[in-house]
Amino acid sequence: MNYVYVATLLFTIGAVGVLLRRNAVVVFMCIELMLNAANLAFVTFARINGNIDGMVVAFFVMVVAAAEVVVGLAIIVTIFRTRRSASVDDPNLLRL
Amino acid sequence: MTSTSLLLSEVEGGDQVVQAATGVFQLTWLLIALPLVGAAVLLAGGRRTNRWGPLLGVATVVGAFVLALVQLFAMLAEPATQRAFEQSLYTWAPFADFSVDVGFQLDPLSMSFVILVTLVGGLIHIYSLGYMAHDPDRRRFFGYLNLFVASMLLLVLASSYVMVYVGWEGVGLASYLLIGFWNAKPAYATAAKKAFVMNRVGDMGMSLAIMLMVATFGTTAFSGVFAGAPQASDGTVLALGLLLLLAATGKSAQMPLQAWLGDAMAGPTPVSALIHAATMVTAGVYLIVRSGPIFNLSDGARLAVVLVGVATMLFGAFIGTAKDDIKKALAASTMSQIGYMVIAAGLGPAGYAYAIFHLMTHGFFKANLFLGAGSVMHGMNDEVDMRRYGALRKAMPITFVTFAVSYLAIIGVPPFAGFFSKDSIIEAALADNVWIGIATIAAAAITAFYMTRVVVMTFFGEKRWADDAQPHESPKVMTVPLIVLGVFSAIAGLASGIGFIRWLTPTTGLAEVEPPVPPLVVSSVVLVALVMGVGLAVAMYGRRPVPEVAPVGSALTRAARVDFYQDAFNETLFMHPGQYLTRFLVFFDNRIVDGFVNGTAAAIGGSSSRMRRAQTGFVRSYAMWMLAGALLVLGALVLVRV
């Protein structure tokens, strides 16, 4: 059960990081933290319940996270190239 | 009105046998097709037909007249009760248990109309060759005239009410086009519109009557409707009669739909002649007489017809006494004379044949009067004010003589045509109800007065011409039709007096009625009345000089001059409330309906522009919202669990 508390703690750290940090790379790392917290919770619950469903999902989450990192980092690098800034507050072009 | 409740057994005639058309009677469609093709060629042919177009227009109507003559003689060769021929060309609108056939019925009644329409119409066409010689648009004019004649022929030849309606609307359209022929003048265009709108009111009666027939009898063919009418309820028959009367009042310019006729003088004079003599105002009388089997069954409907006729007869006669415009005086006279016919038609079998007889004679002399007036205007630079005429009998001898013959005919001097036809109506009216009879005699006196006034002011007295007027006789192409019509006005009464009524009897039926006093006394009283009318007019306008500017006159004169405020009446009662209604509807549409729609759009637009502020563009605030949403869902799940 302690693993669940660890996962909750990790998720909270990640969420707070996403909300409070401006640097896009750090925000990204925080998102990864949240995903891994979720993974930890999945695995823990799988273990508690004695089936492998949660573990299977954890693998899927890892694959999705890897793909997301590729795309996300590419976007961050492109934005940094054009704007010389990695702050998530600067790109607000989609606002009406 | 109790005396008109004739048992049908007292009526002789009305027993004709309708048989399938054979031989020359199968060519009835050609009567209509000829002028219709003429109209199509002239109106679609464009400028190419300018040179020979008017002649083609004349030729089609004359051709139709020749064919009609052939049919007339063929019909006369048949036995009296076997002169009705029916022909169905094809089925126009087939439905499961109701169908409309394009078919024609040729019997003595429609034959009389065909002869009148093609003969008078043909003469008016010929006259128009001269009258419209200088008009740049005369091809279009002849096209419309042909359309007019074709529509009227369809109206009188149709064998079902739906087909009558087609001709009815065609006549309305053609009259609209012709009254507004010189539509560059806004007043003329308005007059055309007025005629059209007032006719629509009557047409509504016709269409409602047709719907009622379909609902009641399941057919609109004359044969089916007349066969079914005796079995229909009293209320249905009364409603049919009143609706048909409404239709007739529209076309025949009877009260309360009479107001368009005076303004219809805006059209060229041959058009007035055509409308008044042959093709338009007679349609209402035709409709009533044709629908005789319906009116025979309802005393109430016949009473309404008679009352409308009496009111219009007196109304038109009084207006006629006050008009200075020669065409408007003649128009008022038409209204009054049609009133006579409507009275006769309302008397039932006692009057149908006389109504048609008066219609025929009136067709001849009224066409002649109008064409004569046109001839006078032609020579006087289109002046219509009789106060600027005077002493024209020397300048226009042929016009004067023909006009005078028709004048004697219309006021009913024996032995001219009007005497026979009008006298018969007066006798029938007297036999029905003394007061109606007296009204017709009074109207005869007034007719004598206003027609004498027209003749005296136009052809006698001293010259009151405009300075540049050089009156001259019209060309032969105009005077020859005048002479022909003059001859008919003189002899039509004599030649067809007895024979004509007998010829119509199988179709319309005839009830012999005895006036309360011998016919000779009636005729004498009528003659005395006319002499008084003529004498008064001569004393007022012949002995004394006619002022060039109309004197103020008595209140009655002033009222008659403006048609007894008929326009003011219609405007107050119908036009202004109508305008207020449309204004209210526009307001309702703009403010209430549009307001609701626009308000909804504005509310959505306004609230969304407020909600737009939530879209800050900061990624972190979106993340915040997402987190809040996720927590909310999570909280809800937990709550539901617990």
3D architecture notes:
The complex is a heterodimer of chains A (96) and B (642). With 96 residues, chain A is mainly alpha-helical. Chain A has 3 helices and no strands. In chain A, helix 1 packs antiparallel against helix 2 and helix 2 (24-49) packs antiparallel against helix 3 (53-83). The longest helix of chain A has 31 residues, at 53-83. The N and C termini of chain A lie far apart (46 Å). Chain B is mainly alpha-helical. Chain B has helices spanning 28-45, 53-76, 108-131, 138-157, 161-179, 186-217, 222-228, 234-251, 260-263, 269-279, 282-290, 292-295, 299-322, 326-346, 352-379, 397-411, 417-432, 434-459, 476-508, 519-542, 555-561, 566-611, 619-641; strands at residues 18-20, 84-94, 99-106. Chain B has a 3-stranded mixed β-sheet. The termini of chain B are far apart. Residues 1-9 of chain B have low confidence and may be disordered. Classes of the chains: A mainly alpha (96), B mainly alpha (642).
The main sheet of chain A comes to: none
Poorly predicted parts of chain A: none
Biggest β-sheet strands, sense, barrel of chain B: 3 strands, mixed
What is the subunit organization of this protein? Answer: heterodimer
Largest interface, C-beta closer than 8 angstroms, per-chain residues: A-B, 14 and 10 residues
Strand order of the largest sheet of chain B: 1-2-3
Beta percentage of chain A is under 5%
Structure class of chain A: mainly alpha
User: What is the overall pLDDT average of chain B?
Assistant: 84
CA distance, first residue to last residue of chain B: 94 Å
User: Helices and strands of chain B: which structural class?
Assistant: mainly alpha
Mean of residue pLDDT of chain A? 88
* H/I helix tally of chain A: 3
User: Strand-and-helix sequence of chain B, N→C?
Assistant: EHHEEHHHHHHHHHHHHHHHHHHHHH
Spell out the helices and strands of chain A N to C: HHH
Distance between the termini of chain A: 46 Å
Low-confidence stretches of chain B: 1-9
Query: What radius of gyration of chain B results from the CA coordinates?
Result: 31 Å
- The total beta strand count of chain A reads 0
Proportion in helices of chain B: over 70%
- Per DSSP E runs of 2 or more residues, the count of β-strands of chain B stands at 3
